[in-house]
Amino acid sequence: MSIVNINNVDKTFFSQETATTALKDITLSIDNGEFISIIGPSGCGKTTLLSLIAGLIQPTNGEIIIEGQQILRPSPKTGYMLQQDYLFPWLTIEQNITIGLKTMKKLTQDTKEHALSLLDKMRLIDKKNDFPSQLSGGMRQRVALVRMLATQPTLLLLDEPFSALDYQTKLKLEDLVSHTIKEQKKTAILVTHDIGEAIAMSDRIVLLSARPGTIYQIFEIPQELRVLMPFQARNHPRFNELFQLIWKELESLE
Fold first, then answer.
1. Is 44 helix (H, G, I), strand (E, B) or coil?
2. End-to-end CA distance of the chain
C-alpha cells in the first residue's frame, strides 16, 4: 500500500528578475516500509524534493499526500535527518533526544523511556549525561537518528546523513541505520550523491535528470541485495554490475 503519493509536482522559485524551475512533473508512489534513494546530477532538485515532502516548502503545481493527507506544512508524520547533526550543544544527550517530544508536548515517562531504549540500541546509553562536544561525529549522528525516531514518525527523510563522516564510520552507520529502519518498520527516502550507498541501502533508486529535475529512470534493486546488510551488499557480485549501469546513466546526464 502506498504511504507517499507525489502527483505531478512542479517547483519554480521566483525572484524579482527570474523564475527558476527546479523540478518538473514529478510523479512517484512509495509503499509502506520501502526504502527509496534519490540520486542525480548536482543541482537537479534532490534536496528540493525532500523539502517538498517534508512540507517545508510548497509545490508550484501538483500535490504531495502522506497517508491520505495532503502536505501543506511540516507534519509529525515525517522525521528529518540532515548532513549535520544540529544537536544543541548546551543540552545533554538525553535532553537532545527528547527535545522533539517536548516541543510536540508528547514528553511523558513512557516516551522518554522509549527514547532512552533507542539510545541503548545505538550503544550510547552510557553517554546520556554527556554533551555533544564529548562525542565523535559518528556518535552524534546516531544521537540525531534517535532524536528523529523518538517522535515515532511514519516517514524518515534522510538528506546525505553520512557524507560528513569518514569512510569506515559511514559504512558502520549505514548498517546500523538500515537495521534500525527495518526493525522499526519505517518508510525512508534518502538523498545521496553516493551510488554505492544508494544500491546498498535501497529497494528502489530514483534517478533525476539535470535541472529542471524530472524522473529520468527508476532502478529496482534485486532481491538478493535487498535482504543483505549494506556492507554485505557491497560485496555481492551483482553490486558492481548495477553500479556500472547506474554510473553510465548518471554520467550521460552530466
1. coil
2. 35
Q: Which of 219, 182, 216, 180 is nearest to 199 (CA)?
A: 219
Cell output for 150? 523518538
Is the omega angle on the peptide bond into residue 222 within 30 degrees of 0, that is, cis? no
The answer to whether 30 touches 187, Cβ cutoff 8 Å, is yes
pTM reported for the whole predicted model: 0.93
Residue 166 and residue 135 in contact, taking contact as beta carbons nearer than 8 Å: no
**Strand locations in the chain, DSSP E?**
2-14, 19-31, 35-39, 61-66, 69-70, 78-81, 155-159, 187-191, 204-208, 215-220
DSSP assignment string, 18-32: -EEEEEEEEEEEEET
Of the candidate CATH numbers 3.40.50.2300, 3.40.50.2020, 3.40.630.10, 3.40.50.300, the domain formed by 2-77+154-253 belongs to: 3.40.50.300
Per-chain mean pLDDT for the chain? 93
Alpha-carbon distance of 130 to 119, in angstroms, equals 13
Listed in order, the ranges of the chain carrying CATH 3.40.50.300 are 2-77+154-253
pLDDT tens per residue, range 190-234: 999 999 999 999 999 999 999 999 999 999 999 999 999 999 999
Q: How far apart are CA 97 and CA 103, in angstroms?
A: 11
Grid cell listed for 146: 534517535
